[in-house]
Amino acid sequence: MFRHQKELQFEVKVERPDAVLARQIQELLGGQFGEMSVMMQYLFQGFNCRGEEKYKDMLMDIGTEEIGHVEMLCNLISQLLDGVSPAEQIEAAKDPMTAAIIGGTNPQHLIVSGLGATPRDSNGVPWNSGYIAASGNLLADFRANLNAESQGRLQVARVYEMTTDEGVRSVFRNMLARDRYHQYQWMAAIAELEEKNGVAVPGSFPPEAEMEAQPHAYEFWDLSAGTQSAAGLWAKGSAPDGTGDFMYLENPKPLGQIPNPNPPHYSTHNDINI
User: Is the pLDDT reported for residue 85 higher than 80?
Assistant: First the structure.
């Protein structure tokens, strides 16, 4: 059960309307790494979570917080669009310099949503459920969550630098702080699961089950020009789980055959046998 509370998590108050900035913030709302994505990712992971209750509880806590972040950004976009009208845009466009600026506005804010936020990115591409990961494997999902928070915080920081509106920046600073905590949170949860089940996903498929293929788990294959990659710990260190040592292969050789598939049936009209 969810219950809406009228107050926002943090205060949202802009200094002045800015339709261009409203379009940029759409990326933070409905883009691949926007708040809609982490909201849906955490909630579906939580809905489907089986096992230790603390993980489900944590996912539902943070997923519900992200619903509040979506609401904050919608409110922020609406405030940035206050006072914008089609007539004013037409009049402003008569000045070439102003026209160049308002060319960066989102026409859907006027045409589709009536000066409100939309579940789309900054180019108007609809939010896509393919952006989220909810596999049922907690370690795999928590690593995806850490990536999502890392990319999301990076994008908020970039948009932060695009505005001097202190009200907007205040909202972003609160989001940046929460996204930093969420990265810490996922790091802690990942470390806990790695301690219990090992670092490779899935932990239920152990190295010995790879049988004759097991040595390939420690080989770095150099498949591009140059040998600089040999200097990394991935090429000369030990595996994080201590099961073996990495080996650098400067000139790896193919270990398989040359494929020789049968021609397709004549009814496919591939014209191979002409």
Answer: no
